[in-house]
Give the backbone structure.
Amino acid sequence: MPAKAERLEARLTSTQRKQIEQAAVLAGESVSSFVVLAALDRADILVRDQASTVVPAAYFDQLVASLDQAEEAPGLARAAREVQRRRRIKAA
């Protein structure tokens, strides 16, 4: 485990401090360890929730099915023809 050199301070009320101290005792941890672990748990939840998008199953099924349905893409076809034309011009 890397050495701990960083510090983090927080301002809180007397009531908040007592509640945290009581919880740390119940968890059998130091206040510092309790606060760090609680903050890391919350950070993990928030980061995980922001890293994924949850949609209803029916919407997801419709999205996946739409990937198998070909659509006309005239702009894409035009762009591909332009690339081929430029390659022929450079080769000439």
The two ends are 63 Å apart (CA to CA). Residues 12-68 form one domain. The helical segments are 14-27, 31-51, 57-67, 74-91. The chain has a mean pLDDT of 90.
